[in-house]
What does this fold into?
Amino acid sequence: MHSSLTRIAAALVATTMLAGVANAETLRWARASDSLTLDPHSQNQGVTHTLGHHIYETLLDRDVDGNLQPRLATEWYLKEGDPTVWVFKLREGVTFHDGAEFTADDVVFSIERAKSEHSNMRQLHAEVESVAAVDDYTVEFQMVGPAPIYPNNVTNTFIMDRGWSEEHDLQEVQDFASGESNYAVLNANGTGPYVLTSREVDVQTVLTAFEDHWAEEPPAVTEIIYLPIADAATRVAALLSGDVDLVQDVPVQDIERLSSTEGFKVETGPENRIIYFGYRFGEEPLRSSNITDSNPFNNPLVREAMELALDRDAIRQVVMRGNSLPTGVATPPFVNGWTEELDAYPAPNVERARELMAEAGYPDGFTVTLDTPNNRYVNDEAVSTAFVGMLGQIGIQVTLASRPVAEHSPIILANESDFYLLGWGVPTFDSAYIFNDLVHTKTETHGTYNVGLYSNPELDEKIISLGTETDLDVRNQTIAEIWEVVKADRVLLPVHNQVLNYAMREGINLAVHPEDQPRMTTVTFSE
Amino acid sequence: MLAFILRRLGQSVLVMLVVAFIAFMVFRYVGDPVVSMVGQDATTGDIEQLRTRLGLNDPFYVQFVRFVGNALQGQFGISYRLQQPVSQLILERLPATIELAFASALIALVFGVVLGIYTALKPRSFSSAVIMTISLVGVSLPTFLIGIGLIYLFAVELKVLPSFGRGQVVQLGWWRTGLLTESGWRSLILPAITLSLFQLTLIMRLVRAEMLEVMRTDYIRFARARGLSQRAINFGHALRNTLVPVITIAGLQLGSVIAFAIITETVFQWPGVGSLFVNSVQVVDVPVMAAYLVFVALVFVVINLIVDILYFIVDPRLRDGARTGR
Amino acid sequence: MTDLPHSPEQPVPARTSRLATFWRSDLVWSYRHSPVTIVASIVALALILMAVLAPWIAPYNPFNPATLNLMDGMTPPNSASYSDRYFLLGTDNQGRDVLSTIMYGSRVSLFVGIMATLFAMVMGVGLGLVAGYAGGLADAVIMRVADVQLSFPAILIALLIFGVARGIIPPNHQEGAAVWVLILAIGLANWAQFARTVRGATMVERQKDYVAAARILGVNPILILLRHVLPNVLGPVLVIGTIGLALAIIEEATLSYLGVGVPPTQPSLGTLIRIGQQFLFSGEWWILLFPAVTLVLLALSVNLLGDWLRDALNPKLR
It folds into this structure.
């Protein structure tokens, strides 16, 4: 796309580099898929949020270390004397792209919208009973009970303008079942640093800098051309051929080549996502095993043997090309509750693992099927294939069932898998998020992804208490206790934390964002 | 005549219904759309609720009847993935696919016919053997590999052609064309070649075979005996007789080029209906998948119908919809 | 076969006279005079032998995960690996010997390709004969179904059938059945070509006097079809069959690119190419190149044999 022009432009930039940064900088930004919708509350999905953050803004934000930062809210605190009310002080002098002023009323409207029936953001605000504007720049959130870590949940909930939304009939979030599409799917009016100029779904989206944005410094990138390129090889080729400037989803095997090629570089950083293997608990025999009278996974010795068979460092080195952080606990380091001791993992020991298998009563091993997605996580299928080989060495003969994630997820969620690979991101940066969905006994509201059906009533009780415990020290102590049991019980078999890689042409600087939601406002240009 | 057309029309409608039916039956096995629609934070209760609301818990014949009913009114619903009306999505993407399909059909036809004639006229020559062999290399590799190989060579190493996309487009009414800009033409080259290789080989071999057959017929021998020049025989008589079945096949193939474009469009990030379909399959976007399949079936049915009617007009002996040369 | 008398001076024993006749037949004549075909058949034979004999001649067994050492991964051709083993063509990202995986992979690909083509052939020829000979309603139904089938690219059909099979077979048995599902999917996606060709040829044959005569004499139609019509349509069927075989092998590869296909622990040639394709830019060229060359050689030689067969079987072209 405009490749000859760009090359000329690039040459011009190179020759006039001494003159400093050019005034108008266009950034052509490619990643694997497009944002699903511009309706801010319709989808709770990383790619969609990433684009959203350029057009809309949230009350709070996270920096690249994962810490909460002020954005549309400048201060936030529990109301004095009432731990069930969160107060947010709002930024003054903020305007929407259409010129309307940003006030507390817009926050009330947006949170209510995000809580409404068709919103996919509503789980994050389930603890909010009501929202009220105290004055133009103060909002109070009445929670159903004490909610000590609620501010973690607002970092992806975008604020819309009430006036604009009502004008275009947007009180309701896009309803999939309605058969119609609402105005906000293709149009936007936020307070964000960029204004939507044009959008062609799956092809390109153009954003230009918002001149009246509240930030003191205007962004170095004045125009963003966002280009989804589905095929990984094509995406890398587009960067190498100069057709794009920045590629977000870089295959790990291409990193070395890109960083060693003149004119390109790769930024690397940890992602807030853990990759783990899960297995079925309970007495019932496995569906895919030759052992038909018991469940080998239910035997702690077998789980220990499997952990000793798993060579995390080999996976890191060969399958991930050094681009992963092997770990012994099912939480990324960003998350509250993570400790170095938990993170430690045993060195692989096949001898000992074989002994454990014999001790457990399976000297000849057993057969089982491992379900793995093949298009969801970084080299997911290769990670599973590698583990199949390692398990083979201790007698566990694994058949690998590799499926696209659209097929994998339903099988997993229906509790139909004996043994599976899954990844888990932690948008709240708090362990409770992991416990709620992966450790708590599976019910209507909890343990959605606890598909191995692990159940420990004692832990369940502790997990529930985390939601309302206001003394943060007590709460953190409970988290530590839960992790201890989860790790000792080997509820999950963590492999590694994913590492993110952004490849770009030389002269662009962009740090990796732990939630893979980079902000083009943070891009700087250099020589 | 009218009865024949009516009967074929009836059959075509039946074909469309069968296609829709099969397609619909299949969707329930491709995966579950709801899981990718609700995101990680949704509870089991949320998932179940959305599934019910979308009618995915209904028996599949109920879903099918509802789909056909809506489709008859031109309603294909909204895409689960992109939340836009499906008919609009397909219409937006259609020009890209049609331009790509025509370009590659043209390449296939021109080169296929020329090379086919050449190899037929010099059946024993070394160059013919080389052409025949090389043409096979093109179909001996999976399309995705050819596409990526071309990108690597022409975009990354030589840097002469764009690696992806459609270049700059110009809006002509609802038709978005890439044929009016230089970057549009340059972007078209690699995907069109990739897509044409298969048909090119097919057409070339067909032309060669037909041409060889025709050259053996009494009619050509007679022409030769009459002392007509070799050139006049080759192009005046032999070729003309060859082209009828060739054009028939080429016409029928146009439909399959559109369908074949799925892989090519994905590799080149070509914004056509094929890549839309692949993206939809990945998240089980049932409304788009259904509409796409019905659309492809419609293209084929229409082309088949036209070919049949033409045959009927050309050769009235072929009643009963019988066709030769296929 | 080895001591077949070649020289005409030698007395030809009565027993070998049939062989001698065969040796002098048109088919063999055209074979002997086509160097391309001779090379193609040698290549095809070598590849098929390599695939069939893989368990005995391959240096390693890449389908046995317990023997793999992940740390051997990405070893370049002809160099020492981490665990000091020797890999002539290097290893892939799982530490599998590329040469052995190609041998075993060709086995999978050829098996899927041949079975799928046979399946398509039997189904297509059968239905084509019936449609062409019977005409009327049977013809209309069969050809309309063929229309439906041809309305979709083979890949799409295979994808859909694969999906249905996945839905019907319980999750835990899917991987064992994967190869058969592939065969079914690719076979069902390709029968219509056979049916169309055979139907056309049958309709032509049906008009001929000898068939009409046979019919008047009250010969069983099945007998007519098998004895008179089938031999006449066999040529084109064989030609479509060989090209279909090449096509089926490629289709298997494409399905694998789309993420469905044989389990990645037992890769076919197509799966190997899909995996190798990821290393196009990263410098591990051997993971892609060797399987790709094998696939091209296989498909090409089969296609060339199909070509020769077409020309040789068509007496009008001789």
About this structure: Strands of chain B lie at 170-172, 175-177. Residues 219 and 237 of chain B are 9 Å apart (CA to CA). Chain B has two domains: 2-72, 92-324. The two ends of chain B are 22 Å apart (CA to CA).
